[in-house]
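#dry-run=false #mode=assembly
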Amino acid sequence: MARLVMKFGGSSLGDIQRMRHAAGHIAREYNAGHEVAVVVSAMAGETDRLANLVREAAPLHDAREYDSIVATGEQVSAGMMAIILQTSGISARSWLGWQLALNTDGTHGAARIVDIRDDLLNKSLAAGQVAIICGFQGIGPDTRITTLGRGGSDTSAVAIAAALRADCCDIYTDVDGVYTADPRVVPEARKLGRISYEEMLEMASLGAKVLQTRSVEMAMTQGIRLRVRSTFEEPDAFISDIPALDSGIGTLVCDEDEIVEQQIVSGITYARDEAKVTLLRVADKPGVAAGVFGPLAQAAINVDMIVQNISDDGKSTDLTFTVAKSELDRAIETIGAARDQIGYQDLSGSTDIVKVSIVGIGMRSHAGVAAKMFQTLADHGINIQAIATSEIKISVLIDAAYAELAIRALHAAYGLDV
Amino acid sequence: MARLVMKFGGSSLGDIQRMRHAAGHIAREYNAGHEVAVVVSAMAGETDRLANLVREAAPLHDAREYDSIVATGEQVSAGMMAIILQTSGISARSWLGWQLALNTDGTHGAARIVDIRDDLLNKSLAAGQVAIICGFQGIGPDTRITTLGRGGSDTSAVAIAAALRADCCDIYTDVDGVYTADPRVVPEARKLGRISYEEMLEMASLGAKVLQTRSVEMAMTQGIRLRVRSTFEEPDAFISDIPALDSGIGTLVCDEDEIVEQQIVSGITYARDEAKVTLLRVADKPGVAAGVFGPLAQAAINVDMIVQNISDDGKSTDLTFTVAKSELDRAIETIGAARDQIGYQDLSGSTDIVKVSIVGIGMRSHAGVAAKMFQTLADHGINIQAIATSEIKISVLIDAAYAELAIRALHAAYGLDV
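#status=ok
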């Protein structure tokens, strides 16, 4: 017997038929004798519907009321799932964030989990009941409902798994695991059997949508094994072997020590949601970077990559950075308003870019990984506009038109093709 | 300055435009310096949508999960109303049943309010905040969400008014008050300025849909003055004079002592949702009534009117009773299954009936009220199939085809026409 947390996203709960299908997965684990806690998102489309309703009433609105309104999506799906399980003769009940209590800080709309009372859940599981827990929601210090931000149900699931000391946290989604690259772009992409927390974290931050970044962070610090697997397989097609976790189902996100054959590069990701801002001929003197990024920080605009080059006159510098596409206009405005303080010759923005990244813990111990990336892109005539690196990833900014070409070429170059 | 509870039903909250209109009523009272607590139903259609979703999942379902699901309707509308008021610069916040706490018993789906903590609400009102309270919902002894049954928001409003010792509880609805009869049937019907609790209670029980019966009951025992008024008037058309409560707005439901000119008959109501069951030639011996109504009670079928006549042979009796139309089939089945124990010659059911009632506290002190009713119906050739009376009402069962004729004739006979 093992203890298992199963998380189902909105696409797994689109209508009652899909909910019954998801209930089949739960029934399989329950009938195998496991203790099962389930975390659900809202039914597909419901969170958007509620968020739009609020926006129609007031574009700027009280985040506490917003949270109370959008949290109803999970309240409905949790109750529905409990009822559906009961029709199969399985004891089940729904749990709202405040009933647990799943305590968060007071940052409405993007709250962080502080702690979770586990006594009620432990009692429920011990009594042979499936606990259906509302994802995405908690209760703040003001005893009002909080939400964890978009994709927050992944984080709820990991936090519940940590509180319950679960053996595994299975994330059921519309793909059957984590791939070496987006299969829509690279038909030769392979599903990874295992991937380390660090790699998954980079991949999630870099555009792979399969898991919320914070959930991976929390799984890493809490040592929770996450498994990404498909909800659309027949429930009985795979019998879980939770203690072994090596059944070939999905992708296991785990400690790197648990990965026997480490790849140098585990995956290639891309992000199309960034935009580039370039300042030409900024005076090359101390305080310039602060002059540019100070106002952006004040305007709460997140900056991702930053590149600075000495200009050909030797006295000025060119500065390039990236922001989210949705914030490009505000970034240009902000920098424009500070032109006198900063002092630059020209300012331009472009959305015609893509960020392509290679990720792999093997990079740490292998030389020449970056060189191969740059050579591969050069061989295909692709110009690199900016570079950013960390210990286990290299990201490059390139012209959006070359995105697919670059990803496929890199996938082949690092020996990832099937 | 007065303290006021304002209740808005689903039709007043059909969409954001209607919610803004309702917010105008709230703003008027708030800006007049009153302390205002608002009780809201779910947006029109939302409770039905949620109830249907549950029914689609399982016709028979856990009432605790059902309550948690349908209670989201009010959670959304309360948050929306708070946000809409805030856009007008009015401080407002939503309150969920469990946040108050509005404690109920554990009868999920039809819970009764046990008590309401008033400290948080009093603090909120004292701080100049409009409290927007979810109607229809509470929290049970098991700390799970309960609901009060259909129309329960009226009861929530009265209970909140009692807990807050409010000066008045205004029920905003799609009619502008309580009428002497349904104006769709009787064009000459008049709006009543005042009506006693007892009369309103009879009228609500007898088919007038304007208020939930239990809310009137509670208003009577708690001495809460209820005012039924239209939500669709221009918010500024009527400035409330709460202490006087005699502005001609709506209908005030109050103690009979507060009604100066009492009518003998205050109103005529009708109900088309009953069905008639007749047992022919039941043995006329002790225990027969128990033999018939025992099995019905066990099947949880409510019986309304009961009439028993001696048959022409002197040894047997005919028994007629009414049940809700929706339960006719079950009632016939139940009586059919008990045929051997009861012993009757024939069993028949009919839905082709209507119950017409006259209501008035003046009946207590006036003779001949019933006689006038029977004579009026006879004059129009309308046969009476059953009669039931209480101290302040007389109900008759007649052929459904004569409903409008009977109501109009009685309205004129008792001098209620404009």
